[in-house]
Amino acid sequence: MFVSDLGITAKRGRDGSLFVCVTNLHTTEPVSGVDLELYNYQLQSIVKTRTDGTGTAMLEDLREMPFVVMATRGDRRGYLRMADGNTLSLSRFDVAGVEPQKGLKGYLYGERGVWRPGDSLFLNFVLEDKTGKLPAGHPVTLELTDPRGSLQYRTVSSNSVGGVYPFPAPPAPKRPPATGPPAYRSAAPHLPNS
Prior knowledge:
Layout: E1 6-12, E2 18-24, E3 35-39, E4 45-50, E5 56-59, E6 68-73, E7 76-81, E8 104-110, E9 121-129, E10 140-145, E11 151-157, E12 164-169, E13 186-190
Antiparallel strand pairs: 1-2, 2-5, 3-4, 3-6, 6-7, 8-9, 9-12, 10-11, 10-13
């Protein structure tokens, strides 16, 4: 229901959290200082909060999921019905993602997609620790294996900048010509004692 120019977007998390974003429908700019009130199906208030400077509010550990969100700023009001039947159907999309293990999630990437034999590797491992369980400087081990599964290179790094661990690696070791060119087949990061 549109009563004003306040556009409301809400996303529920599996952990009971709710992310709410309020924007101006005319300019698409975020609207800060908007009072948000969440109501259940009986229209009883569940919780009140306010959007920050980015026009967002994050609500953690909701005791029940809201039926409607009301956004108020001055004489402007916006409403968002949160009933399950009104959500965007995601049945045709792969939205499962990856569930964090022990609150941790990581991604390994390189500066390019393909390397020629003899090239050095420059890999980075991004570690997301939303729960803050790992201490600063926690080591990450990177192992590189050849096509036969034999370990060819192993290194440990505890130098992280913003959760990004750099892993420069030397070229794959030379092999006898009969076994093919030198190559790494897979790279696997490991977190010891996590």
